[in-house]
Amino acid sequence: QQQVKQSPQSLIVQKGGISIINCAYENTAFDYFPWYQQFPGKGPALLIAIRPDVSEKKEGRFTISFNKSAKQFSLHIMDSQPGDSATYFCAASKLWVSGTYKYIFGTGTRLKVLA
Amino acid sequence: EAQVTQNPRYLITVTGKKLTVTCSQNMNHEYMSWYRQDPGLGLRQIYYSMNVEVTDKGDVPEGYKVSRKEKRNFPLILESPSPNQTSLYFCASSFEARVGGELFFGEGSRLTVL
Questions:
Q1: So what's the pLDDT on residue A1?
Q2: What pLDDT does A91 receive?
Q3: How many CB atoms lie within 10 A of CB B57?
Q4: Model confidence at A69, in pLDDT bands (50, 70, 90)?
Q5: Is A110 on the interface with B (CB under 8 A)?
Q6: Do A41 and B102 touch (CB under 8 A)?
Q7: Each residue of B4-47: pLDDT tens digit?
Q8: How far are the Cα atoms of A56, A72, A79, B70 from residue A21, in angstroms, in the given order?
């Protein structure tokens, strides 16, 4: 019940296309859903995040769509660029019994945008 | 510059030889955590710390130890490394443990245990 399932494992998109990465969760207590972007040789960095009180959040070319009833959320990258080529991780988090926020990460999606 | 610094970035060692991976953050963050990243498994939490002298196990703590004697430092200790601990390790920190917010990650430490 604590898993976050991420798909696809890898994605190849033409420059200018739309990249879509999907995540699904089971635990309805999760209340913070971030996406992290990781370039080769670097640590993950926060890209965009959403809380379940909204269905969509947009920052530039990046949009999170959130479907609370389906327990799914997705990252859309509009006008994908070669510089977007990276690994993307979704995560779901909530306050744990320990008193700290715990993050459950998806397995990652390796995106390659062709020039 | 706000950052999380890990050392070493790359390390090859042999089974049973104790090693320590250091982690330091300069953002005065309360919360620090260690993750390991393995292909097809994503990021899994090893240990975390809510504050100085407060540490707890994550999802995959076996074979690891940590300490938090100072707010800025959170070293990861492998007392007797084994080949199944070959992985990419990330230290992360966050301003506060009790609020969902941004995790700041270090650049990673790639460990190979022969």
A1: 62
A2: 96
A3: 14
A4: very high
A5: no
A6: no
A7: 999 999 999 999 999 999 999 999 999 999 999 999 999 999 99
A8: 15, 11, 15, 39
Tell me the C-alpha distance between A74 and A36, whole Å. 12
Q: Which of A42, A37, A49 is nearest to A84 (CA)?
A: A37
Query: Would you say residue B98 has pLDDT above 80?
Result: no
Name the percent of chain A lying above pLDDT 90: 90
CA atoms in the 13 A half-sphere facing the CB of B33: 28
Whether A108 and chain B come into contact, CB under 8 Å, resolves to yes
Name the DSSP class of B103: P
| pLDDT of amino acid B38 | 95
Instruction: Quote the mean pLDDT of chain B.
Output: 95
Determine if the peptide bond prior to B8 is cis (ω within 30°). Answer: yes
| Cβ separation A99–B103 shorter than 8 A | no
Distance CA A88, CA A69 (A): 24
Do residue B103 and residue A98 have CB atoms under 8 angstroms apart?
A: no
A71-77 mean pLDDT: 98
User: In three state form, how does the secondary structure of chain A look?
Assistant: CCCEEEECCEEEEECCCCEEEEEEECCCCCCEEEEEEECCCCCCEEEEEECCCCCEEEECCEEEEEECCCCEEEEEECCCCHHHCEEEEEEEEEECCCCCEEEEECCCEEEEEEC
Residue found under tokens 């993050």:
A103
A contact test, residue of B35, B43, B60, B99 with most A CBs within 10 A: B43
Element housing B49 (H / E): strand B42-51
